[in-house]
């Protein structure tokens, strides 16, 4: 058999071997340098240093001091209560010192204390999941079906973790310089972390959308509209962030209305900024009470002395311009808080609840003898009162029912209510107390009935 010869050259192209390029031989490979004993010792020392640095970094990070116990199966929210319970008795209680309101998320009752955030079965109090760090808790909030926990380090309340409310799985985290104490608030879209000198706004993945006030990065100092201001109060809606601040050299508190998510998180965008006017305009007890997309309510304490002026709610437009002043019969307590329902903002004054129309902020009704902030349940508004929980008509504030509640160890502080299914939660005196009718039970909500999570 004849073997085929070499292939014929391709017509129109030069077919030749690249004879000019030398072939690679061992002559072109550099011989390794001779290693001395000093070289070996230096390399070993560097390796040891790297290992030690990694160990130190791990030991001082949150990872080394974190314990996460997640649920085997995600919790399912119970069906909303079809009617009010006929009676309520205590089912369980747990320490809850890191927040001031009864928190729920994805079918669990949430508590925060002693570095731990715990999701509880609302009926039994059994632990569903737990997230613990060996750091003090600055605050806990819930939103988006998630739980946000903020921890204190040597950089202030700087370490923030978000876990799933259903199973405690860690979703994301962030770290940034913050004040030593912060107040967390949510509006359905954003989380606001406000300290006395600095404020941040976070979206649902904890990405910062705005920093305001003191800025630790020197290159961003000039982007802030004012310097050295004390941040007294802040509240937000999905389209407005309102900050009440006291700035050097100014005769009264300043109300600033900002975009919660400007184009650049380091460059605040103001819709308006004005000095408050009238009685209590310079008081450190003034605060932002409620914010909607087109209205702002600010509390001003009034003045004493020979010619006293009554405390008031000043209603402002979306740019911070005053619209109307509503006088109050008594000052708001320092524990005052606000709950947004579908049709109203419910303002706890310290001893009563004032309902403001959600669109106009006009007063709708007032309920007396309140011990704290209410919560909707079965078409009614539940309100903690002495010895009971009152059921109110949401349109008129009229009491239409009363459920006795025993609080033998109640210390007199504000009570925040929450609801999961047929279970009523009371946050009081640094504890979360679950109340229910033992003759009833909860059934889980169907998957199709669960509300969609916002994509922000």
What features would you describe in this structure?
The protein is mainly beta. The chain is 5% helix and 41% strand. The strands form 8 sheets. It has a 5-stranded antiparallel β-sheet with strand order 1-6-5-4-3, with no helix packed on it. The protein has a 5-stranded mixed β-sheet with strand order 2-34-33-32-27, with no helix packed on it. A hairpin with a 2-residue loop joins strand 8 and strand 9 (156-164). Residues 435-456 are annotated as: Disordered.
How helix-rich are the residues, as a percent range?
under 10%
The assigned CATH architecture of one domain is 7 Propeller
CATH fold annotation of one domain? Methylamine Dehydrogenase, Chain H
**Count of helical regions:** 1
Secondary structure tally: strands: 34
Oligomer type: single chain
CATH homology group of one domain: YVTN repeat-like/Quinoprotein amine dehydrogenase
Mean pLDDT: 88
Q: What is the level 1 CATH name of one domain?
A: Mainly Beta
Distance between the termini: 76 Å
Strand order of the largest sheet: 1-6-5-4-3
Q: What sort of overall outline do the alpha carbons produce when their principal axes are compared?
A: globular
The biggest beta sheet is recorded as: 5 strands, antiparallel
Q: Which segments are poorly predicted (pLDDT under 50) over 5 or more consecutive residues?
A: 1-33, 50-62, 448-456
Radius of gyration: 30 Å
């Amino acid at each position: 058999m004849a073997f085929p010869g070499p292939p014929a050259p391709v017509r129109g192209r030069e077919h030749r071997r690249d004879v000019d390029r030398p072939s690679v031989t061992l002559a072109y490979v550099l011989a390794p340098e001779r290693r001395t004993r000093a070289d070996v010792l230096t390399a070993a020392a560097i390796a040891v240093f790297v290992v030690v640095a990694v160990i130190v970094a791990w030991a001082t990070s949150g990872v080394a001091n974190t314990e996460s116990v997640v649920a085997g199966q995600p919790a399912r929210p119970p069906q909303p209560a079809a009617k009010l319970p006929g009676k309520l008795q205590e089912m369980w209680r747990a320490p809850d010192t890191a927040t001031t309101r009864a928190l729920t998320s994805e079918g669990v009752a949430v508590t925060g204390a002693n570095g731990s955030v715990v999701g509880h079965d609302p009926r039994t109090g059994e632990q569903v999941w737990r997230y613990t760090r060996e750091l003090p808790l600055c605050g806990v909030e819930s939103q988006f079906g998630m739980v946000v926990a903020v921890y204190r380090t040597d950089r202030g309340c700087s370490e923030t973790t978000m876990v799933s409310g259903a199973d405690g799985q860690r979703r994301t985290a962030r770290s940034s310089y913050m004040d030593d104490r912060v107040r967390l608030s949510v509006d359905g879209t954003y989380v606001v972390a406000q300290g006395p000198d600095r404020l941040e706004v976070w979206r649902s993945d904890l990405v910062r959308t705005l920093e305001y006030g003191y800025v630790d990065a020197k290159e961003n100092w000039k982007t802030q509209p004012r310097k050295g201001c004390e941040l007294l109060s802040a509240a937000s809606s999905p389209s407005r962030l309102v900050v009440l601040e006291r700035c050097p050299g100014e005769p009264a508190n300043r109300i600033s209305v900002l975009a919660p998510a400007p184009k650049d998180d380091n460059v605040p965008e103001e819709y308006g900024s004005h000095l408050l006017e009238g009685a209590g305009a310079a008081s450190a007890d003034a605060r932002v009470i409620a914010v909607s997309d087109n209205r702002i309510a600010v509390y001003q304490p009034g003045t004493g002395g020979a010619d006293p002026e009554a405390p008031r709610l000043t209603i402002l437009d979306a740019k911070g311009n005053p619209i109307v002043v509503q006088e109050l019969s008594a000052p708001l307590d320092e524990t005052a808080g606000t709950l947004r329902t579908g049709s109203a903002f419910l303002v706890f004054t310290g001893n009563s609840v004032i309902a403001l129309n959600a669109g106009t902020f006009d007063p709708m009704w007032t309920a007396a003898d309140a011990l704290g902030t209410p919560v909707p349940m079965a078409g009614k508004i539940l309100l903690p009162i002495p010895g009971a929980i009152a059921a109110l008509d949401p349109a008129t504030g009229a009491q239409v029912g009363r459920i006795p509640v025993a609080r033998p160890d109640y210390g007199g502080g504000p009570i925040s209510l929450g609801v999961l299914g047929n279970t009523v939660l009371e946050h009081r005196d640094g504890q979360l107390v679950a109340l229910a009718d033992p003759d009833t039970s909860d059934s889980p909500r169907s998957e199709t009935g669960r509300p969609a999570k916002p994509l922000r």
